[in-house]
Write a structure and sequence with these properties.
The relative contact order is 0.11. With 306 residues, the protein is α+β, with helices and mostly antiparallel strands. A hairpin with a 4-residue loop joins strand 5 and strand 6. It contains twelve helices and nine strands. Helix 8 runs antiparallel to helix 9.
Length: 306
């Protein structure tokens, strides 16, 4: 959590209300400046542990911190504006007991604040290897997934230690372990936090924007290095998105020569669309104007490849 004194109570209550009660709840405070930590410590339940970062580091480092302080065999990762639905942990336990031994993470569905569900379209019950995972993400418009992951996998594979999302972890995980997708809604994403990264009403912190852009360049470079060929073959939509966002991030950082090089690769390797050309062109001319426009929900929908 980061500055979520209102939302974190809802998230905690969702955990405490579970019928399956043999769990530990680790809340990682990512250097909040409001009363979020005080809300957590107001609960006397001994299963709740609060761990605090001295500096704001982002969701993936917070997940790594939570894993490091965990003792359970299976780990459910959620954000502070999410909430587990009643019976969630009992259902997870049932599916874990019936899952193939090779399945090292189980993916479940969310209900969204706008009435939709994620991932969208809904998956079929399926055990996915690396190529299966790439094909799956390539057909989804929304890939928010409620993960229940074997703790042992984190011994060899951690979330990226940066401000980027867990996308890189997802590809690396799929290459090492199998994923079981289960089309059952077990949690809700409310998306009502004022400081949510995708909330257009949140004021832009330009220093944070540059940090995220720099981290994305590093992460995308690694993803293209490690998965580029497989992405082009099995997940061309995702390959297009990663390469496009890499180009935009370079322009945002003022690294124009590098941005032009990635733009050339984008135009050479990806199908050309009006949206793609407009996005890269505007980002090259005025990164701030592009980012302000991208914050608009209708523009974010239009820029997603179809």
């Amino acid at each position: 959590m980061y500055n979520r004194q209102r939302e974190i109570r809802r998230a905690i209550e969702g955990c405490l209300a579970q019928t399956f009660q043999d769990f530990e709840l680790i809340v990682v405070d990512d250097a909040s400046q409001d009363d979020s930590a005080a809300v957590v410590t107001s609960y006397a339940d001994p299963r709740i542990t609060l761990v605090r970062h001295e500096q704001n580091r982002g969701e993936c480092p917070a997940r790594n911190t939570g894993v490091a302080h965990s003792r359970g065999e299976w780990i459910v990762t959620t954000d502070s504006d999410d909430a587990l639905l009643p019976g969630c942990l009992s259902a997870m336990r049932k599916h874990i007991e019936g899952a193939p031994v090779s399945a090292r993470r189980l993916g479940f569905m969310y209900s969204m604040g706008n009435g939709s569900t994620a991932p969208h379209p809904a998956p079929q019950y399926a055990l996915l290897d690396y190529m299966g995972w790439l094909r799956f993400v390539n057909t989804r418009d929304d890939t928010n997934i409620l993960w229940c992951t074997s703790r042992g996998t984190f011994d060899s594979l951690r979330f990226p230690d940066s401000t980027v999302t867990e996308l890189e972890w997802g590809f690396a995980f799929a290459r090492q372990y199998e994923t079981l997708l289960i089309p059952e809604i077990l949690a809700s994403i409310f998306g009502d936090a004022d400081n949510r990264l995708t909330a257009s009403r949140a004021p832009r912190n330009w220093e944070r924007t540059l940090t995220r852009a720099n981290d994305y360049v590093a992460s995308a470079t690694r993803m293209l290095r490690d998965h580029g060929g497989a992405l082009r073959e099995f997940a061309p939509r995702y390959h297009e998105t990663i390469l496009r966002e890499l180009t935009v991030s370079c322009f945002t950082l003022g690294r124009h020569r590098e941005g032009l090089r990635h733009a050339a690769a984008y135009f050479n390797q990806c199908r050309l669309t009006t949206a793609g050309l407009a996005i890269i062109g505007l980002a090259a001319v005025s990164p701030k104007a592009f980012l302000d426009l991208r914050d608009r929900r209708d523009f974010r929908k239009a820029m997603n490849p179809s």
